[in-house]
Amino acid sequence: MFSKETLRAFIRDLTIYIQKKLSLFGRVFETHKDILVDLLMAKRGRYQGSFLNLSVFMLATSGIIAAPHISAYYPTLVQGEVLSTVAPPSATVADLELEHMAMVTRESDKPRDQVIEYTVKSGDTLSGIARTFDVSEESIQWANDLKGKNPVLKPDQTLQIPPVTGVVHKVKRGDTVFSIAKTYETDAQNIVNYPFNDFVDLDTFTLAVGQVLIVPGGIVKEKERKLELFSPLFSDYIRGKITERAINGEFFLTKKEHMLFELLKKHKDQVCERDTIIDTVWHEYEEIGVSDWAVDRLVARLRKKMAVMKSEFLIQTVKTRGFILVNKKS
Q: How far apart are CA 197 and CA 114, in angstroms?
């Protein structure tokens, strides 16, 4: 059998070995812990319960296995003994002076779970409020529909402060997690992973109409164009951008009618495709597109004026393709 000294030396070496392995495990864990966090947050923490149960079970099992070795290495008290007789002086407290101990209570930072209201005070700025609540300035602007880069805040003005940097969205009929994520240019998983977002069904992440949804990391894109009362084509007409030009000095055409006539005349007896007409006559509206109806109406007006003038030319329609200018006698 092993002597008591040999057993203690073995336990001491084993303890050092375990400490080194635990230190190595700790460094590896710190490096890759984000993977574990992502796994536990998947599907709104569905796997957290199993992980915690397994951790408690492993901790209890380790305690049961290690208890006999710990009791053999560290002495225990029997009846009539005191701690100072079996423990070194460094392990006991000889003099406890509470007045020399600094007792500081640290309040942990808890994430907010909802939008809160903030009343603007004199001297407040948007950047200062954003720093106070640890969100971006844009998030506050989007939540309160504030326009401009440096909006002016008035005392006693009430602001809605989102819990995180992102967008506060009120669910409308037809909205889904994926459509909302696409609208605000973020990942749908960010919406699902936010712990304070509620869903009607956790399996399908169904949303309820009217509920407030937090979109972490979402952004609101600026509209590229302002809303116009009339379409660009009609606006072009009512602004008076009309140039009258004469054919044979007898009848007059608008600018676009003249451009169409010159195009057809240039390609006389040849089919002018609809796309060619659109590119030539409406080149400034290439980005928004021009309908076939607009082309047909322009051709109809040109035909009518040519008939009144008794022109020698005739515009014929080639189905599914375009138009052709021919002589009436041919």
A: 9
Q: Where are the beta strands (DSSP E) in the chain?
A: 116-119, 158-161, 166-170, 212-216, 245-247, 251-253, 272-273, 313-318, 322-327
Give the orientation angle of helix 126-133 with respect to helix 137-144, to 10 degrees: 110
Three-state secondary-structure class, residue 35: helix
pLDDT at 12: 83
Question: Angle between the 4-41 and 48-73 helix axes, to the nearest 10 degrees?
Answer: 170
> 250: which residues sit within 8 A by CB, 6+ positions away?
309
pTM exceeds 0.85, yes or no: no
Token pair in block for residue 291: 């309908």
Q: At what angle do helices 274-281 and 292-309 cross, to 10 degrees?
A: 80
Q: What is the CATH number of domain 232-327?
A: 1.10.10.10
Across 178-203, average pLDDT: 87
Average pLDDT, the chain: 77
How far is Cα 47 from Cα 193, in angstroms, rounded to an integer?
Answer: 13
CA distance linking residue 219 with residue 166, whole number of Å: 6
Domain ranges of the chain: 4-75, 116-216, 232-327
Q: Which residues, at least 6 apart from 241, have a Cβ–Cβ distance to it below 8 Å?
A: 255
Q: Residue 40's pLDDT band (boundaries 50, 70, 90)?
A: low
Closest CA to 44 of 180, 191, 169, 168: 191
Q: Domain 116-216: which CATH class? A: alpha beta
